[in-house]
Write a structure and sequence with these properties.
This protein has one helix and eleven strands, in the order αβββββββββββ. The chain has 168 residues and is of the alpha+beta class. The longest helix is centred in the N-terminal third of the chain and has 43 residues. Bound molecules: FE2/S2 (inorganic) cluster. FE2/S2 (inorganic) cluster binds next to loops.
């Protein structure tokens, strides 16, 4: 009769140990993964070096093409191309393009921006920002996220805030 009691006792102890080991190893594993994620973050996220977005023929007039990895929308209008930064100027959420409304809508607090990136309504007080565009050597549309342009500072007319097309 002593055997089952010992067995039950050791089984309870074993379960307790198992739970402790699970807890400890889970914590260590989570810490390790967090550390690895932190150390490898630069390799996972794109840098700010210029990237090719495509060629002019990729977009028709009025079309919006999203590049989520670069937080960018590339838009073509009658004058050429411009790149909007897909970060809400209220508190930094990511708006979505509503093609049926021809608006960018921020789901966080419902700011709306028109196709040009101008604020239409909502708590955001200013327009979306633009990234710099320039022509690549083979006629590609190049994105440079190291430079932004703010409309309220009069920067949307600066070189690079839009890419004239057809080219002069
Ligand atoms: S973050 Fe976009 S409306 Fe608040």
């Amino acid at each position: 009769m002593a055997l089952p009691i010992e067995s039950e006792s050791s089984e309870k102890l074993s379960r307790r140990d198992f739970l402790w080991y699970t807890l400890i190893w889970s914590g260590l594993g989570a810490s390790l993964l967090s550390t690895l994620a932190y150390l490898r973050l630069p390799a996972w996220s794109p840098g700010l070096e210029p990237v090719v977005l495509g060629v002019p023929q990729d977009l028709s007039l009025g079309e919006v093409k999203a590049f989520p990895a670069y937080q960018t929308w590339l838009i073509r209008n009658e004058s050429g191309f411009y790149a909007l930064r897909s970060v809400c100027t209220h508190l930094g959420c990511t708006p979505v393009w509503k093609s049926d409304l021809t608006q960018f809508h921020c789901p966080c607090h419902h700011s709306y921006f028109d196709l040009a990136g101008l604020r239409e309504k909502g708590p955001a007080l200013r327009a979306l920002e633009r990234y710099r565009l320039f022509w690549g050597q083979q006629g590609e549309i190049m994105l440079d996220r190291s430079q932004t342009f703010r409309r309220e500072l009069g920067e949307w007319e600066d070189a690079g805030a839009w890419l004239p097309f057809p080219r002069a």
